[in-house]
Each structure stands twice: as structure tokens, then as C-alpha cells.
């Protein structure tokens, strides 16, 4: 196997694990609908789900596709060809991004339906530097030119997710497990936000405290786990 073939095969394996993590966490609608992609490093190509269900995803359903929609290896269903642009726009807008995930996670999608951003009212968001409000990209039919430019319009350098109005969630990160983490954190934050509103208003974490939360997370990660006896 050439290095590139081995690399692509390894990326496909990461996507299968990622889809299982999403289903396990319940960050997906009852239908199991969703799609995801990984950028093949150093290229304008990605591995993209060819089926629109993440539950039970298999490696043969992950064709290699160029950002402009040419299928280079494998088969892409027509319904998935429609969403090439939704993934491609993230990679073109931010060269640091290596993976994109899309589901209709019910709580986060409720914010998209209400046309309301998800804000930093949850420790998990602060810890992973998701302190900016997650914006809502204006509605456009799935895969349409309008829907893609609406995503580009609300993305900034620091964006790690966008809510798609009346539709769902798009999350992205340097790698696929990072994108899954963002999706799950948003679903948790959205659920908490909705529950908090039944008894009051969610309170936001002040920016300086959010920075402190990140700093602590980094310090503990660098230090490793302390054993109960205080060694290592
Ligand atoms: Zn969708």
C-alpha cells in the first residue's frame, strides 16, 4: 500500500469511530440523519459520507470527493452530492479545519429553528474555547447556493460551529473527534439552555472566567493525572 492509500484508509477508520461516538451521545435526530467529512491533508479533497444516515456507517460508504464535487474514488449517492458545498465551504473558508460534521441534534436544532444563537452559559463550552455565540446561518434549501453563502457569511476565524436555520448543526475542527466534541458540547449546552429557561434565564460565563477555565484545562492536560498517593 502506498502511504496515501494507507492514510486514506486510516481516515476512513476515524470516521467510523466518530459516527459511533455521535450516535452513542445521542447528538443526532431519531432518523439517524447526518453526514460528515475529513479533509485529506494537503489536498483539495475530502472523504465524505455517501449515505445520509450515520447509524451503522461502513467504510465503503466513504468516497473520496474533490471540494468541487468530483468523485475520485468510490460512489456518492445523489442526495449526498447535494451537500458537497456545505462541507467544502468550511475547508475553503478556514484552512485550519480538517473535519466537518452535520446532524439534526434535537436540542441544538431547536435553537436553529428558533433562530437563536447558543451562547457560552456552560462550562464545557468555556473549557474548549467555544466562548463566542454560535451563530445562525440564514435559511436556504439544503445544498443551495444561498445556504452555502449564508454559512460563509457567519463564519469567522474562531468559528467551530454554525447553526443552520430551520435545519440543523454544522460543527468543524482540526480533526474529526474535535468536530464531534464540538457537536456534543453544543447539544449539551442547548439542552441545558432550554431547561434553564423553564426556571429563569441562562447566565453567561464572563469572558475573563472563560479564559481562566481554558487556562486550567491546559495546565491540567500538561500536568497529567495525579495519583491518589501524590506521585505522577
Ligand atoms: Zn441536514
Structural topology:
Blueprint: H1 3-25, E1 34-39, E2 45-48, E3 64-66, E4 71-73, H2 78-81, H3 84-93, E5 99-103, H4 106-114, H5 123-127, E6 136-137, H6 145-154, E7 161-164, E8 168-173, H7 176-197, H8 207-223
Parallel strand pairs: 6-7
Antiparallel strand pairs: 1-2, 1-5, 2-3, 3-4, 5-8, 7-8
Bound molecules: zinc ion.
Residues 102, 104, 167-168 line the site of zinc ion.
Care to describe what's here?
By secondary structure, the chain is an alpha+beta fold. The protein has a single domain (3-223), classed as L-fuculose-1-phosphate Aldolase (3-Layer(aba) Sandwich), CATH 3.40.225. It is 43% helix and 14% strand. It has helices at residues 3-25, 78-81, 84-93, 106-114, 123-127, 145-154, 176-197, 207-223; strands at 34-39, 45-48, 64-66, 71-73, 99-103, 136-137, 161-164, 168-173. The protein has an eight-stranded mixed beta sheet with strand order 4-3-2-1-5-8-7-6, sandwiched between helices. Helix 4 (106-114) packs across helix 7. The chain is globular and about 50 Å long.
**Quantity of strands, as a count:** 8
CATH architecture: 3-Layer(aba) Sandwich
Evaluate the radius of gyration: 18 Å
**Which homologous superfamily in CATH is the superfamily?**
Class II aldolase/adducin N-terminal domain
* Text of the CATH class: Alpha Beta
Bound molecules: zinc ion
- String of helices and strands: HEEEEHHEHHEHEEHH
Please give the count of helices: 8
Task: Enumerate the strands of the largest sheet in spatial order, edge to edge or round the barrel.
Answer: 4-3-2-1-5-8-7-6
Distance between the termini: 41 Å
Number of domains: 1
Mean pLDDT score, rounded? 93
Q: What share of residues are in beta strands? A: 5-15%
Amino acid at each position: 500500500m502506498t502511504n496515501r492509500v494507507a492514510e486514506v484508509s486510516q481516515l476512513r477508520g476515524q470516521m467510523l469511530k466518530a459516527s459511533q461516538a455521535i450516535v452513542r451521545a445521542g447528538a443526532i435526530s431519531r432518523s439517524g440523519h447526518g453526514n460528515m467529512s475529513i479533509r485529506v491533508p494537503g489536498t483539495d479533497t475530502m472523504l465524505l459520507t455517501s449515505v445520509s444516515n450515520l447509524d451503522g456507517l461502513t467504510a465503503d460508504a466513504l468516497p473520496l470527493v474533490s471540494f468541487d464535487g468530483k468523485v475520485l474514488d468510490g460512489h456518492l449517492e445523489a442526495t449526498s452530492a447535494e451537500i458537497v458545498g456545505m462541507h467544502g465551504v468550511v475547508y475553503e473558508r478556514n484552512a485550519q479545519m480538517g473535519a466537518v460534521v452535520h446532524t439534526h441534534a434535537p436540542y441544538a436544532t431547536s435553537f436553529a429553528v428558533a433562530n437563536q444563537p447558543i451562547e457560552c452559559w456552560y462550562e464545557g463550552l468555556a473549557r474548549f474555547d467555544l466562548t463566542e455565540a454560535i451563530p445562525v446561518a440564514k435559511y436556504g434549501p439544503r445544498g443551495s447556493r444561498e445556504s452555502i453563502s449564508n454559512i460563509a457569511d457567519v463564519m469567522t476565524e474562531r468559528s467551530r460551529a454554525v447553526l443552520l436555520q430551520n435545519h440543523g448543526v454544522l460543527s468543524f475542527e482540526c480533526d474529526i473527534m474535535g468536530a464531534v466534541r464540538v457537536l456534543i458540547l453544543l447539544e449539551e449546552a442547548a439542552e441545558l439552555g432550554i431547561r434553564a429557561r423553564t426556571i429563569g434565564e441562562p447566565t453567561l460565563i464572563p469572558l475573563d472566567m472563560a479564559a481562566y477555565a481554558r487556562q486550567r484545562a491546559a495546565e491540567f492536560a500538561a500536568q497529567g493525572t495525579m495519583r491518589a498517593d501524590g506521585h505522577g
